[in-house]
Amino acid sequence: MAASEFSHLRCQIDARLEQLLPRQADDPVTLAMRDCLLSGGKRVRPCLLILTARGLGNDSPPLLDLGCAVEMIHSASLILDDLPCMDDASLRRGRPTTHRQYGEDIAMLSMVALLSRAFGLVSEASGLAPEICTQMVTQLSRAVGDQGLVRGQYQDLHASQQLRSVNDVSTTNTLKTGVLFQATLALAGLAAGANELTASRLKCFALAFGQAYQLYDDLTDGLAVNGKDVDQDNGKTTLVALLGEEEVRQRLAGHLAKADRHLTAVFGADSSLGRFMHGLFSRFDHEHGGLLSQRASAFPLSRH
Amino acid sequence: MAASEFSHLRCQIDARLEQLLPRQADDPVTLAMRDCLLSGGKRVRPCLLILTARGLGNDSPPLLDLGCAVEMIHSASLILDDLPCMDDASLRRGRPTTHRQYGEDIAMLSMVALLSRAFGLVSEASGLAPEICTQMVTQLSRAVGDQGLVRGQYQDLHASQQLRSVNDVSTTNTLKTGVLFQATLALAGLAAGANELTASRLKCFALAFGQAYQLYDDLTDGLAVNGKDVDQDNGKTTLVALLGEEEVRQRLAGHLAKADRHLTAVFGADSSLGRFMHGLFSRFDHEHGGLLSQRASAFPLSRH
């Protein structure tokens, strides 16, 4: 039941993204934007945003656009991450990366256009009070900027040749993945008029979820099944390299349990957001032949 | 008198930019952002914004931050424009371009951070009504996005090998230069609560000013004195190549006269914005040994 609940939501998100960026055959930049946005993607961030706001009692149409804005920023960050001067990746979601398909210049322009469109979408979100929209723009600006994704990307690239501590790697993970989840949940809280305590719990949830998500990514690096270049992180210090797979699996389970506790404090023991999170990691696990649940005792995937 | 009036304003803008982006010696991304933002630059856009809003009766502190936001977007567009996969420029304002000095990855990250910071600055501008801030974010998003600077940059790169008409080149010029001037003036109008007629005149002024500005750029390409690579536009179709220098000089004068008419309609015959514009083009002319005024009859530089 839960699966179909979320697949309907994903379809709504896909349809809205498609609508926001209509096909213009003569414009390679919008084609590249569409390709990156519409070719797959689990829509994790828009789903989190919408399910959280709904859980808090808001189910208004602008949620869909806010989710699409966050997805556009995420897509832009993938294009950036894959560029020759960054990770120089050739595959993403099983397809050629944007610069491989369209050229580096168009990849870069589509990245800039996606970012800029995201801010515009938030500022134009209808039905929200303008003072809420401006706070959302502020949140996204911080998430992207030199203390957010940009800093994470820099650390990820430039610290990779050095010996790094577990804390350093965790900080980079938070900046590369956590801050956008944090902004996503902050937008949901703002849209639903969450009080300070709830907003702070959602922030803790986002950070725990982000750490779990990044560890999953580290665990599956080197596996062809994830549709990216195999061993993309080769040369970078990941927590898997520092701690070993088993320890990372346990930590991932710990982050999920922490995320669960914060969710329960906000929504009670059973929430659609909780079902979404567990469904997501169960699917990851299934896709990777039980990689995450090899020590079932440490991994609470059976809960839902 | 006029010169010192504007040099004080430029100092205020420089000081605020410096304050907004404090030096962090251990962070190459913010160093690159600062370098691009603070190393020269005529501050044309912030000056236009502030002088326009003042002329319309608003002289509040957030104007400075709005001006800095527009300047950040302009700086980001210069970094982008210079990248190896774009113009592959080595010099800008007489110094190595950002990617030459810091590497391509840091140039790109600083470009993204500047863009994103600009949106944040506008959303946080204190003393403005939130509904004004959201409209400003919308304006800037459109100016940057796939129908604005991004499209201009694409056309500039990809149409360069073809034979292009005067109209095509003018459209590219508008997208590359005019749309950000247009957004700059729109922000000024919004900050000052301009009515529709005034806003529309300011838009016409911005477009005429932008065309004049771009023609100046075309005329001075190939001259080492402008601090950029000599013949950066080599291989691109410019209006100078299509029409010849003399015709371009006349057109430039025509655009300035048009800009003047719109200014006069809003502010009367003598305005600080008018003095600024004429002072700017006179300075250009002086710096280039009278390049613009070789046919004084066609060029109204003597007015102020």
Provide the descriptors you would attach to this structure in a database record.
homodimer, 304 residues, mainly alpha, Farnesyl Diphosphate Synthase, 13 helices, 2 strands, globular
Short structural description:
With 304 residues, chain A is mostly helical.
What does this structure look like?
The structure is a homodimer of 304-residue chains. Chain A is mostly helical and 304 residues long. The first copy, chain A, has helices spanning 2-20, 28-38, 44-55, 62-82, 98-102, 104-124, 130-144, 149-158, 166-191, 196-220, 239-243, 245-267, 272-287; strands spanning 91-92, 95-96. Chain A has a two-stranded antiparallel ribbon with strand order 1-2. In chain A, helix 1 packs across helix 4 (62-82) and helix 10 runs antiparallel to helix 12 (245-267). At the A-B interface, helix 2, helix 6, helix 7 and helix 8 of A face helix 2, helix 6, helix 7 and helix 8 of B.
| Distinct helical segment count of chain A | 13
Biggest sheet features of chain A: 2 strands, antiparallel
Query: How does the helix and strand content of chain A classify structurally?
Result: mainly alpha
Number of E strands of chain A: 2
Which whole number gives the mean pLDDT of chain A? 89
Strand order of the largest sheet of chain A: 1-2
Oligomer: homodimer
The Rg value of chain A, from CA coordinates, equals 18 Å
Could you state the CATH homologous superfamily of chain A?
Farnesyl Diphosphate Synthase
CATH architecture of chain A: Orthogonal Bundle
The sequence of SSEs of chain A as H and E is HHHHEEHHHHHHHHH
